[in-house]
Q: What sequence folds into this?
């Protein structure tokens, strides 16, 4: 019997009762388990972590969303770009981890903060507060609302004609997505292709052009009840199929 693929999942760091924890939301783990993979949370120990060591035994990487933002210093931001909360240990772990993952040709799916990390790791920059940029929507989740409202579809995105994501959407050129982010891509990193965009011009999905396996980032949250949405299910299935092929 063939073994189950092992997929690394990026971890946030947080404090409970004075103790430091590393963790990932269950909503990111369940799609992997349902597809037959074993998720393995990668601790964010920050500087001193060896990205190649962290990837040992992994068949793919899932970069999760988070409450925290990428620190502006990683993309030459100024003091005026401060946008806490931060997770410095996660930044210092995931940015080199992304580069090592691409070098190893491991499949990678980057969600929300994960897509922002992908852009920064490859030399791009972010709008620290996209809702303050003239002409842009407020892409943040509505405060104080239940999860069913926060993760509900908020706006359409147009899929790039001939792109990878367009190929998953059948005859659709526009899909509805949720929106729960404060940062967004400003300068697109070299080597990334735009796969989807919101009506206000915000880049909503990217693909690593030179990647030899699946390497996609999306700004929305397809993991939320993914099996109920055909496009989200197709996205995770494509990621899993790529992991299987590369094992």
A:
């Amino acid at each position: 019997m063939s073994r189950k693929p092992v997929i690394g999942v990026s971890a946030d760091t947080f404090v409970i009762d004075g103790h430091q924890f590393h963790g990932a939301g269950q909503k990111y783990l369940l799609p992997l388990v349902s597809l037959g993979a074993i998720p393995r949370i990668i601790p964010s120990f920050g500087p001193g972590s060896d990205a190649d060591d962290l990837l040992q035994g992994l068949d793919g990487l899932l970069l999760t969303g988070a409450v925290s933002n990428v620190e502006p210093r990683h993309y030459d931001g100024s003091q005026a770009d401060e946008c806490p909360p931060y997770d410095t240990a996660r930044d210092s772990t995931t940015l080199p981890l992304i580069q090592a993952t691409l070098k190893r040709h491991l499949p990678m799916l980057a969600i929300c903060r994960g897509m922002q990390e992908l852009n920064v790791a490859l030399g791009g920059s972010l709008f620290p507060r996209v809702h303050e940029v003239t002409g842009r929507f407020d892409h943040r989740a509505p405060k104080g609302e239940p999860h069913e409202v926060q993760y509900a579809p908020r706006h359409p995105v147009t899929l790039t004609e001939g792109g990878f994501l367009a190929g998953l959407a059948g005859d659709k050129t526009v899909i509805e997505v949720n929106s729960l982010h404060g940062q967004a891509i400003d300068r697109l990193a070299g080597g990334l292709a735009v796969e989807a965009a919101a009506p206000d011009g915000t880049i909503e999905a990217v693909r690593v052009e030179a990647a030899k396996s699946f390497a996609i980032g999306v700004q929305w949250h397809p993991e939320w009840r993914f099996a109920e949405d055909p496009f989200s299910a197709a996205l995770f299935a494509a990621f899993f199929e790529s992991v299987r092929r590369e094992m």
Observations:
- Residues 230-246 form the longest helix (17 residues).
